[in-house]
Amino acid sequence: MLPDLKLAVRLQDIDNRVAELTKEVSSLPKHIAEIEKKLESHERKLEADRAALTANQKDRKRFEADIQVQQQKISKLKDQMLEAKTNEQYRAFQHEIEYCETEIRRAEDGILDLMTESEPLERNVKTAEGALKQEKTQVDAEKHQARERTAKDQRELDELNADRKSIATQMTPNVLGAYERARKMRRGIGVAEAVDGRCSQCHMALRLQFFQDLKRGERVMQCESCNRILFYNPPQTVEHLAGEVAPAARS
Q1: What is the mean pLDDT of each run of 10 residues along the chain (251 residues)?
Q2: List of residues 6+ apart from 95 with CB closer than 8 A
C-alpha cells in the first residue's frame, strides 16, 4: 500500500476515534444535568411532603388548643350555672355548654382526620429521605466518574490530535486535501475500502478498469461516486494465513 494511502487510513482511524471521544465528552455533562434534574425533582417532592406534614401537625395543635379553650369555657360555665337564679339563665348556660361540647367534638373529629392524613405523609417522608440519601450518593459517584472519564477522554484526545497533526505533515498536500474535502462532505468518512468491486461506503460499483488500477496500487485513487479515497486489501490466501506454503495434497 502506498505511504500516502496508509497515512490516510491511519488518519481516518484517528478521526473516527476523535469523533467517538468528542461525542462522549459532550454527552457526559448532559447526563449529569439529567440526573441532577431528577434529584432536584425528588428533593422538591420531599420538601412538599414535609411542608404538608408540618401543616398537618400545626392544624392538629390548633385543634388541640381549641379543645383546651372550650374545656376551660365549660368549666367556667358550670361554675356560673351554680349561681343561676332563673331557669332562663340556667338553660342559657346549658346551651353554651352544649355549644362548647359540639366544638370539642368537631375539633376531635378534625384531629382524627388529620391523624389519618399524617400517617401516609410520615411514611412518604421517611421513605423519600432514605431514597434521597441513596440517590445523592449515587449522583455524587456518577459525577465523580464523569469527571474522571472526561479527564481520561481529554488526555486521549490530546494524544490523538498530536498524532493527527504529525500524520498530516507527512502526507502529500493534495492527498491530505482530498481526504479532508471528502471527510467534510461525507459525514466524517474520507476513506473507504473497495470490496467485491464496490465502494464499501457508497456501495456503488467501480468500473472494471478503475478497479484493476486500484488493485495495482500505483497511485492514490478516489471513488468516482462519493470522492472518498479508496484502498484495496487483497484477500489472504491459505499460504498467508498459515505463514507458509500449504503442503500438496496426497493422491
Answers
A1: 94 96 92 92 92 94 95 93 89 93 94 93 91 92 92 96 96 96 95 96 96 95 96 71 44 32
A2: none
Tell whether domain 17-169 is in CATH 3.30.1490.190: no
- Residue 236 burial by CB count (10 A; 0-12/13-18/19+): exposed, middle or buried? exposed
CB burial readout 12-36, b (16+ within 10 A) else e: bebbeebeebeeebeebeeebeeee
Q: Would you list the domain boundaries of the chain? A: 17-169, 173-239
DSSP string, 165-184: HHHHHHS-HHHHHHHHHHHH
pTM: 0.65
Q: How many CA atoms lie within 13 A of 86 on its CB side?
A: 3
